[in-house]
Amino acid sequence: MINLRRFTKFTLAGLTSLLLLSGCSLTPTVALQPVSVQSASDAKAWELKGKLLIRTNGDKVSANLFWLNTPDNAELRLTSMLGTTVLLLTQNRDGATLEVDGKSYSDPSPQRLLDGLSGFTLPIDALPYWITGQPMAGDEVEYDALNRPKTIISADGLWSISISSWQTQSGASVPRTLDLKHASASIKLQTNEWQALASAHGSKGAQ
């Protein structure tokens, strides 16, 4: 099991045995290009760059975040401030692969893979929705004066998501800072760049 204390040590040490940010990136099966959308829900694919801070059981770890999300493939990468990859999760229709500490693990379910190998909970299935300001079916939502989600309580009641600021990216209003709280962990996420993507061969919603 990968606990947060060891994960923090890896981040600070900048392990050179792990994959570098410039290597082994996911290549989408379809060529993608930047597009402008009216709402984040209109984006069939997107990429995000930001920062992540995870606290659990008295430990904390911060990392740079890169996330590519498409209908067929996904890549979630956490890197240290030195640019060294400390965690890489890739997913396609055949399942998910997690690379960490120089080792590779696979499972049909990315959520089960993370739950089984990490000492903290990361809601990998729901996070793509919450990170773009979209509640999932069954979530309890409190809206702000502009009718944007301000607080989201997950359908199972385990997660509380607070969106404290918004920004305009790719023509859409998306969260800039989020705080996610769970009994086992709290996560602070800051989005520096969010880009909607579409097929380079004709893209609905592109402007």
Automatic annotation (TrEMBL):
The listed locations are: Cell outer membrane
Q: What is the predominant subcellular site recorded for this chain?
A: membrane
Q: What SUPFAM superfamilies does the entry give? A: Prokaryotic lipoproteins and lipoprotein localization factors
CDD domains named among the record's database cross-references: LolB
Superkingdom of the source? Bacteria
S-adenosyl-L-methionine as a keyword of this entry, yes or no, is: no
Which residues does UniProt call coiled coil?
none
Give the way it sits in the membrane.
Lipid-anchor
Keywords assigned by UniProt, alphabetized: Cell outer membrane, Chaperone, Lipoprotein, Membrane, Palmitate, Protein transport, Signal, Transport
Q: Where is the signal peptide?
A: 1-27
Write one Pfam family the protein is assigned to: LolB
Does the keyword section mention Zinc? no
Subunit annotation: Monomer.
Q: What does this protein do?
A: Plays a critical role in the incorporation of lipoproteins in the outer membrane after they are released by the LolA protein.
Family the entry assigns: Belongs to the LolB family.
* Name recorded for this polypeptide: Outer-membrane lipoprotein LolB
Which species is this UniProt entry from?
Shewanella litorisediminis
Name the gene: lolB
